[in-house]
Amino acid sequence: MGDEKKKEEKKKDERKFHQKKRYRFLFGLILLVIVSSIWGGKEVKRLIEECNNGSIEACKELENDWSSYLESESDKAKITNPYLTEKFKKEAVIKEAKEKKKAEEKRRRAEEQAKQDALLGKMIMCKEILKASLKDPSSFKEVNSILDQMRTGVIVYSATNSFGGRIQSKFDCNG
After folding, report:
1. Amino acid 26: pLDDT
2. Residue 134 DSSP SS3
């Protein structure tokens, strides 16, 4: 029984040791991220200053290697070198044009969908009126597809007549 207690104690000690290792690793990782973020921010500030003082190399380095740090408009506003300010203006114009095109496409799709919904509603209403006008509405069967109906405005159907015979006919929903 004494051996079992010692084994349990040893397992608990090992778990605590591994747990401490995990916490140290996590703390170290977080510390590394914070330090690299601070260093990156300082490096960007230095490059912005050099770029503003006329160093095209610093501007190119900012543009190529540190572009992810220049995502915010406040960082871009700090840059006064025409080499990058003109580039930022062009990017802004392109981005605005893309957003405008995307919004226009979305509006056009919404309009098209609204037209299709209205046409579908019209065809459903027309079908209900047609069924109600039949002697035996339960015998109504559509022959053409809903797409054909929406395209042409004509419902081709079959139904039973007064004598019980099945007939085929057309109903124009446009007229």
Report:
1. 85
2. coil
